[in-house]
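Project standup — Tuesday

K.O.: blocked on the structure for the chain from last sprint. Re-posting the sequence here as requested.
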Amino acid sequence: MRSNSYTLIFTSCITIVLSFFLSIASGLLKEKQIANVELDRKKNILIALGFEQSAKNMWKPKDIQTLFSDFVQEFNIDENGNRIETASIDHESSEALTYFQIYKKVVKDKIEGFAIPISGKGLWSTLYGYLAVEPDGKTVKGITFYKHKETAGLGGEVEKPWFQNNFVGKQFIDDEGNLISIQVIKGKVSDDDPQSYHKVDGISGATITGRGLNQFLKEDLKKYEPFFKKIRNGLEI
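H.V.: unblocked you, prediction finished:
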């Protein structure tokens, strides 16, 4: 009959050995996990900017990398909408420069849109995505949500094409040039509504998610408004 001390020592040894191998496995997979996250980020930027993949020709990792490298230019702007060099950003400084990322789609030397990161609280989680804007600096080109923990079938519908497609062609600037953002409403947008140009259909049963989206989308657009205002005024960035 085994003693209690033997059982304790044996269990401890097994635990240590298993922990050792799990630690090694985690370390080996970490680099791949980081690469997959980066790949997913680029994929969502491409989709927001209007690149399409078909059911018969789904993108492979190499395809995503090639498309992004060939047609997307990444740069930063300051809070005044001016382009800044990455080298000038001191991440360790207590007075670090405030900057925002932008992704520009360029095809055959022609600008076809800009994408900006968006994020904010929904009902249960923080939603992360990208909003793409047409070269006019005021019309939505596309939107994606790729990371969230909203309820499936309710708030989780933000990641579905039917919801995201509602944003395409909507404008977040009024006739006077004021930022009004895009508003997710409760129910469906009426064709007779004079404000329909900046409203999209809501998700049934996901009112709080919609409210959260409205709030953080306007806040994020406000950060980039100095940049888009320059674009609307025909300035080269």
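K.O.: great, moving the ticket to review. The chain has a mean pLDDT of 85. The CA atoms of residues 154 and 205 lie 6 Å apart.
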